């Protein structure tokens, strides 16, 4: 099973719109072309598909995702309009990956850049993990661990301690995929008797400079995506960068 994660496309209704450093739609087209060559089984889009929250921006994205030729799933980030997204493609809270499953968590807070899962969603997560002990991936927009970037860590998951307390009772969670940070990232966080991997992914648009005190764009980094291969109970993952 091969899953490809992309994130933070930041499209606008105008297909020729610019970002700080480039053209988001053209960059997403290049990312999708490279992703297609790796023959994914599933595409997961972890939020901030749009920059202007327009229906047209989601239609542009949907056309590219459809062309990939595999099932695709998405959820909202802090820049997104969830209702417009779900009119085009409904959200899914759980994906069956055979030997594995993937649970999608909603970390978006309307009108805010930072995120939160909330008590009700964490309680539902705990119940879901009690009912199915298969190896599990979690996906959310906001990062659930510090990334040593002062400005971005102020905009991460506000109730991350509550999340990790929940996960400490469920050993089948192997990894968390997140967006939002516009950079490749990987770490492990102790949890219960073991540990959980946390993976960030480059944006398909502009990249943020890692380890920065204040907001900064990484002008040298290229767009990219994450590949996750699942084979039995084994997980292998890496980041692919795309030349423009």
UniProtKB/TrEMBL annotation:
Calcineurin-like phosphoesterase domain location: 1-183
Keyword annotations from UniProtKB, A to Z: Hydrolase, Iron, Metal-binding
Superkingdom assignment: Bacteria
Coiled coil: none
Keyword Metal-binding part of the UniProt annotation: yes
Membership in a protein family: Belongs to the cyclic nucleotide phosphodiesterase class-III family.
Protein name: Metallophosphoesterase
């Amino acid at each position: 099973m091969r899953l490809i994660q992309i994130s933070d496309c930041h499209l606008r209704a105008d297909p020729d719109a610019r970002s700080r450093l480039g053209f988001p739609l053209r960059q997403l087209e290049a990312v999708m072309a490279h992703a297609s060559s790796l023959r994914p089984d599933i595409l997961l889009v972890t939020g901030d598909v749009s920059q202007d929250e327009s229906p047209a921006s989601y239609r542009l994205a949907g056309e590219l995702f459809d062309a990939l030729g595999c099932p695709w799933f998405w959820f909202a980030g802090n820049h997104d309009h969830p209702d417009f997204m779900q009119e085009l493609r409904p959200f899914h809270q759980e994906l069956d990956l055979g030997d594995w499953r993937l649970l999608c968590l909603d970390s978006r807070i309307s009108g805010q850049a930072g995120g939160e899962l909330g008590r009700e969603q964490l309680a539902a997560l705990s119940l879901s993990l009690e009912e199915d002990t298969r190896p599990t991936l979690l996906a959310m927009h906001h990062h659930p661990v510090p990334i040593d970037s002062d400005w971005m860590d102020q905009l991460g998951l506000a109730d991350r301690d509550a999340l990790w307390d929940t996960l400490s009772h469920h050993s089948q969670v192997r990894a968390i995929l997140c967006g939002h940070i516009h950079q490749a990232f990987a770490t492990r966080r102790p949890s219960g008797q073991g540990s959980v991997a946390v993976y960030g992914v480059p944006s398909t648009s502009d990249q943020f400079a890692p380890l920065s005190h204040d907001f900064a764009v990484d002008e040298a980094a290229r767009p990219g995506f994450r590949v996750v291969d699942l084979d039995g109970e084994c997980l292998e993952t890496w980041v692919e960068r795309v030349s423009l």
